[in-house]
Amino acid sequence: MSCLLKRGGGLYPRLHIAAVLLAAGEGRRMGGVAKPLIRLQGVPLISRKLVALSGAGVDEVVVVTGYAGGAVEQQVQSFPVTVVHNPSHADGQEGSVRLGLAALSGEFDAVFVMPSDLPLIAADDLIELIGAFKKRAAGHVVIPFVNKQRGNPILLDEAALAEILKSDTKLACRHLIDNNPELVHIHETGNTHFITDLDTPGDLQVLAERTGWRLEMPA
Fold it and tell me: What is the model's pLDDT at position 165?
């Protein structure tokens, strides 16, 4: 693992950061709707996530498509991202995570793994996680926890990336902390953006009532 202190320029030098943006799911609980295409205030969620990643200084983004892949790819074509398609997206998120990580083109100090159905995540939230990553005393995967509830996205270092790609470690598994506690650094926070996602039509209604924002299903 590279030594950050050798890179110079302050207590916490700038990290080289990538992201895998997961946009392959079938949205079964949403009634078969491709959730990355749900519009918040007229802007698709996947576009909002790409803007957030850019604002947080992320250097490279891989978007993993699957269900409604053509429509999702059309939304991201104006962004400088790599798109990979997961033909086995119905088998679950783990395959998409591995495809995305394997598609990264260089070496990185840290990599975000982020679902695209997090409506409130913005650049400041990602910067919060980057700060937690820099300050952690141990652990290779930073996971936000809000009121004892696991959130997203997560942020992993190069050691965790290598371990995941060479083994059967399941990064997307909710039992990651129990099965691999040595990998995990828990970031305790009161930021509810990390635990606000959209799984069902009811979630859209709740968020609209809570924020006053307009949420629309894709055509």
Answer: 79
Domain ranges for the chain, please list them. Answer: 15-211
Reported confidence tier of residue 7, pLDDT bands at 50, 70, 90: very low
In whole angstroms, what is the distance from residue 3 CA to residue 119 CA?
35
Beta strands at 110-115 and 82-85: parallel, antiparallel or unpaired: unpaired
Task: Check if CATH label 3.90.1150.10 holds for domain 15-211.
Answer: no
Phi, psi for residue 146 in degrees, rounded to 5: -125, 115
Question: E-strand spans in the chain?
Answer: 17-23, 39-40, 43-44, 60-65, 82-85, 110-115, 141-146, 149-150, 154-157, 184-188, 215-216
For residue 160, give the nearest of 138, 188, 144 by alpha carbon: 138
Neighbour tally for 196: CB within 10 Å = 20
